[in-house]
Amino acid sequence: MQHKLGFSKLSKEEKIDWITSTYFSNPKEAKKTLLQYWNTEESIQKLHDEFIENTITNFYLPLGVAPNFSINGKNYTIPFAIEESSVVAAASKSAKFWGARGGFKTTILGTEKIGQVHFLYRGDQSKLKDYFNFIKPTLLSDTEGITKNMQKRGGGITSLSLVDKTSELENYYQIHATFETKDSMGANFINSCLEQFAKTFKANATSFKAFTTEESDILIIMSILSNFVPNCVVRAEVSCPVADLNEDKNISPELFAEKFVTAVKIAEIEPYRAVTHNKGIMNGIDAVVIATGNDFRAVEASIHAYASRNGKYASLSHAKVENGIFTFWLDVPLALGTVGGLTSLHPLVKFSLEMLGNPSAQELMEVIAVAGLAQNFAALRSLTTSGIQQGHMKMHLNNILNQHKATKEEKEKVIAYFADQTVSHNLVVDYLENLRKG
Fold it and tell me: Strand, coil or helix: what is 96?
């Protein structure tokens, strides 16, 4: 049903009244649901209301922590904002396991960001190249007002090039730019530079003597950063002698290593497995990206493009055994910021960053990559030994009980019964119903 008077012009209360009366059989109960998630601190609620448009309430995610992560010899407690059970427990278990075996090591492989001006040109390609070389210094000088503060922090524009894409789309070219944005994610900075490039590039074309009138009429299509950052990459890894993989008494370290490495190799060649394999990695990555106020949609898009960069979707992580040493590692692109955006606005983002020691963007890249690797290790360890359901469903047990409004006494009895039983939704519900029947 449409609101004919301009929904966005209504007050928050009027929006809620219209929604609840239009779509709900019990408007009073629907309104109560929305109101119970409002923050009682007025200034905090006002802050949340202004993050986006047409706000009616807050949508909460649990914020958990996984302590005792040793990364490059430094100890971290990592925040996770996520609703999926067992993720924080699995990460914590990995942290403990690898903390006793030297911890996690990370390496920044690059921090380059990318932006493009997309345009159409219907003239002589050699003239366009000459024009680009002629105008390039002006493109840079015209953005000095934008780049001044970034340059003071050691960042700025790092390269500009003309890209011919006419073999794929008629008359289509790009100005391809690379950037260093230091501790900011850099989206606004990059887009401002690109829009200035486009303005300068088009405006000066009419005075370039080699162009005909038609050639000087360059059509700018759009100017926008790319969220694909294949040169803004961090590596996280763990390693130890195979003999030290001895925590599970039901399997030898050698057999565990063989099954684990094979499981990773399967994800490297089988896209159906790779998607689920990488989803497990993203359980860790997304949760920390959200907790630290970064754009998880951009991160997801970039990472999955990176997983497909060789023409087939494949595992982000890799494993090997050489000379008796087990090594497990992950290369992942992460464009992150620790200044700007929500980092200075959202109180829990500020809390999370301070808990991490107020890291630089590069240090945050390292922490988040480790969270992904830890999650992947925990999942593969379960898959190749006890199976994923045993641990996952036991963690999920409490959600099932809450869904069916189990009392404290009922929860205690169900948890005790399933301590050594297979957990499934149907079995839990059946047992709970039998308890209630006496």
Answer: helix
